[in-house]
Amino acid sequence: MTEGQRGAVVALFEQGWRHHATATRLGLSPWAVRDVYRRWSLHGRRALVAKPTKTSYSFEFKLDVVG
Fold first, then answer.
1. Which of 17, 18, 35, 54 is 20 to 30 A distant from 29 in Cα terms?
2. Tally of CB atoms within 10 A around 45
3. What is the topology classification, in CATH, of domain 3-66?
4. Distance between CA 61 and CA 38 in Å, rounded?
5. Is the confidence at residue 28, as pLDDT, over 70?
6. Average confidence score pLDDT of the chain
7. CA torsion 14→15→21→23, rounded to 10°?
């Protein structure tokens, strides 16, 4: 979900929309919207902040660390 989509989702939540209706209205996955809804209900607008992604390391880096 893009940052703009998360902003639209949170705006609808603040108007009283629930996650399933929001997903239907915006054409998004209900599961993704539900996750944003849970984050929004706990953290408010801070739910708009992107979650950090997993760091991936190359095989060479891993080999260097082990060796």
1. 54
2. 11
3. Arc Repressor Mutant, subunit A (1.10.10)
4. 36
5. yes
6. 88
7. -50
Question: Exposure string (b/e) for 25-42, b if CB count within 10 Å is 16 or more?
Answer: eeebeeeebeebbebbee
- Neighbouring C-alpha atoms within 13 Å toward the C-beta of 17: 21
Domain spans, the chain: 3-66
- Residue 34 near residue 26, CB atoms below 8 Å: no
Q: Which two tokens stand for residue 36?
A: 């944003």
Q: Using 50, 70 and 90 to split pLDDT, how confident is the model at 13?
A: very high
pTM value is: 0.68
Burial class (CB in 10 A: 0-12, 13-18, 19+), 8: middle
